[in-house]
Amino acid sequence: MKPKKAKWSTSALNKTTGSINKVGLLTENYGQNCPSKEPITHGTIVIKIGGSTLGNHDTTLRDLVALRQEGFNPIVVHGGGKVITEWMGKQGVRPKFVGGLRVTDAASLDIAIAVLTGLINKTLVSSILAIGGKAIGISGADGGMLTGRMKDPELGLVGSITKVNPEPIKAILDFGYIPVIAPVAVHSSDGSSYDGTLLNINADTAAGEIAAALGADRLLFLTDVEGVLDSSHRLIPRLTERQATGLMHSNVAQGGMIPKLEACVTALRHGSVAQIVDGRNKGALHDTVTGKSIGTRIG
Prior knowledge:
Elements: H1 10-13, E1 43-49, H2 60-69, E2 72-78, H3 81-90, E3 96-98, E4 101-103, H4 106-130, E5 135-139, E6 146-150, E7 159-164, H5 167-174, E8 178-182, E9 184-187, E10 198-200, H6 203-214, E11 218-223, E12 238-239, H7 241-249, H8 257-268, E13 273-278, H9 284-289, E14 296-298
Parallel strand pairs: 1-2, 1-11, 2-8, 5-8, 6-9, 11-13, 12-14
Antiparallel strand pairs: 3-4, 6-7, 9-10, 13-14
Helix pairs in contact: 3-4, 6-8, 7-8
């Protein structure tokens, strides 16, 4: 019997180039004058995955196991917004959003922590184990891996990361396991009433900060879209840091793509090359790491 795929729904758990000329931004020829990056044959790769990329034809978890066996050091950071919303509904808690970001009060935080660090994290770990891999599930609170502070009082207990301690991740890698990380942080000790409070962290942001702290070779976002699209909705194959920043400032990149691009820029400034690819495609993760040109590469 084949092992079941990981699903995060509650039913499972109960070469085109583009140009823009908008808002004063200079026209760019995307994909030109970008530094090349050869396929890496070993190294550290931070991979952010979302529940929408894990489907019946998805090979992400098998790709993870294969990469580990081939000598890579894959590190998984996962989100879980949709499942959190489902469980909030079950508990009669209605989600609120400000500027596209979830507002997290005390009741919402309890649900978010339970879903992220428990339901989703352990489902991913068990699914990796079921196909012959070795994984350990942790959160950013474990070992003081992620320290943060409240991002905006309007957002409640949503944090921005102020410090990353990569030692717990390195220890897991040293023992031959794949770290699977839930995006939760501990509020820094700043003398406020929030000292030691758990904070909900955007998973894209967490992935970028972890990649930067580790000096990872690559940061990969597995999404449910082709990659970054231009103003004509065409795939942009390559972006420089300046071009990525321009897309955000011109509002061509919107919604969930903004924290991804911000994370890519953060990692890029610390030596990583970042890619945003459609994780629903068979072999997407393995193909990206081994040099096949898919999605959007930043750097």
